[in-house]
Amino acid sequence: MKNIDEIRADFPILGRRVYDKPLVYLDNGATTQKPRVVIDALADVYLSYNANIHRGVHHLSDIASEAYENSRETVRSFINAEKREEVVFTSGTTGSINGLAFSIGERFVNKGDEIILSHLEHHANIVPWQMMCERKGAIIKVIPVDDNGDIIFEEYLRLLSSRTKLVSITQVSNAIGTVLPVNEIIAAAHTLNIPVMIDGAQGIQHGVVDVREMDCDFYVFSGHKVYGPNGIGCLYGKEKWLSELPPFQGGGDMVDQVTFEKTTYNELPFKFEAGTTDYPAAIGLATALGYVTSIGRNYIEQREKELLSYATERLLSIKGLKIYGNSARKISTISFLLEGIHQYDTGMILDKMGIAVRTGTHCAQPVMKRYGIDGTVRASLCFYNTNQEIDTLAAGIEKVIKMFA
Ligand code: PMP
What we know:
Blueprint: H1 4-9, E1 17-18, E2 21-22, E3 24-25, H2 36-49, H3 59-79, E4 87-90, H4 93-108, E5 114-118, H5 127-136, E6 139-143, H6 153-159, E7 164-170, H7 182-190, E8 196-199, H8 211-214, E9 218-222, E10 233-237, H9 239-242, E11 255-258, E12 263-265, H10 279-295, H11 297-316, E13 321-324, E14 333-338, H12 343-352, E15 355-356, E16 358-360, H13 365-370, E17 376-380, H14 387-404
Helix pairs in contact: 2-10, 3-10, 4-5, 11-14, 12-14
The structure holds 4'-deoxy-4'-aminopyridoxal-5'-phosphate.
4'-deoxy-4'-aminopyridoxal-5'-phosphate binds at residues 92-94, 122, 124-125, 170, 174, 199, 201-202, 222, 363.
């Protein structure tokens, strides 16, 4: 088991300074930093075996294709999907949801049908469904949230009906940290045979994800939020759904036979992987998942719980600081405001102290509106953060308050 210094040493960027102060990186919800093994894996592709996958007969193409398909197997095992065919590489969560919204819309959605979302969704899990609903004449229904940031389950049950074509829900709110009761949400939808998509963008990096145990029909996530490269992500789908859905992009590799009259499609998962995918990033993602496994997902979950409780206690001791999102089930993300001080001012002053936090609406304007605010400061912590960094944040916030007093 590595100690925290050894873990931090795995992430070269954590050792840098900002404005001549040690970097305190608390913006992991936006993107995580990369361990050296991931950076090395990417470099290794380009330095020693770069070639387009699934196409050449030559040696390098064979190595790259095999590494890419092994990466798919790593993802399958990491999320415990039943089959490799159920794991589609995409450009990320946004790419996955846009693709799925198109395909589901084309195949299953008609005028008057409904899609259920929650009030906690990121724009990436709102806008693609809206675009599809506009095309198809369908309607979005929204599960409300209470003052703590939990969805109101009875309201959800009321929304489910024979008109519901899909429930698309985040596993964890990026804006306020709530962990949603996805197992219960899925079980309730399944009593009416309604499929459920889980947005795992903020879920996959914080604990064990088991799509079979969850029994979700689709699960999407981004590599860059789980210590992997940018530009890669996944769309997991149960085979029974993926085989029924039409592709969302046409192009090379996703086809079987092409004539000008008609095209037949490739088998799963290639039907959904048109064109040259970012195979180096897929290999980097698999390396990141391997790294996470080596640290231990149970360890990560436990350590982040400790960080959350330390940070919550520390920040709540600051007079005038209010936390938004007080669910009993939260990941290590704290959204807050300081009385009478705009979030941008807080964020900009903290930045000058080397502390990186996010400010604004966190691409979740509806939930901000729900609480009558136009944004928050968000500190999103992960297992490489330390209690000392939380102390630095708390001291920085005290300084901001003094400056505005
Ligand atoms: N859903 C949630 C809950 C997110 O937090 C994010 C990223 N902030 C996204 C979707 C979109 O992810 P990406 O930008 O990597 O596609």
